[in-house]
Specification:
The chain has 124 residues and is of the alpha+beta class. The protein has one domain. It is 18% helix and 30% strand. It has three helices and six strands. Strands 1, 2, 3, 4, 5 and 6 form a six-stranded antiparallel beta sheet that branches. The longest helix is centred in the N-terminal third of the chain and has 9 residues. It is globular. The termini are far apart.
């Protein structure tokens, strides 16, 4: 079941891998400009949702992908030396949970990097 941006809680997106299907042209162009590999028929992206304590709900691009009509998914290679972040509401597409443990394990280093970022100090 696809999640609509307005109907899903940030709690359902934070600290999770998500597949964004039917991405829009603007999002494709952003991915292309960041030097991530994206093919002509790629229509999705795999992202990791997290809370950026200064910018709010954010998504780290893990890779572009193509979701075929039969449900099969072809993933592009990850770009380990490049980071691309999307903020909530900055892209269009259907967000669905992605729970392929073996695939997610390939991005463990990137996910750990997000979790190990220092949190800003706030005066109380």
């Amino acid at each position: 079941m696809a999640w609509n941006h307005e109907e899903i809680s940030f709690r359902d997106m934070a600290d999770k891998c998500l597949l964004v299907k039917d991405i829009d042209t603007k999002t494709r162009n952003v991915i292309n400009k960041t030097e991530f590999k994206i093919r002509k028929d790629d229509n999705a992206m795999l992202v990791y949702g997290y809370i950026d304590y200064e910018a709010g709900l954010s998504f780290e691009l893990l890779c572009a992908a193509c979701v075929y009509d039969n449900g099969e998914i072809a993933f592009e290679p990850q770009k380990k030396d490049t980071s691309c972040k999307f903020r909530f509401g900055s892209f269009k597409g259907d967000i669905v949970p992605f729970e392929d443990v073996a695939r997610i394990a390939l991005y463990k280093e990137r996910i750990d990097m997000i979790h190990n970022q220092p949190k800003p100090c706030r005066d109380i």
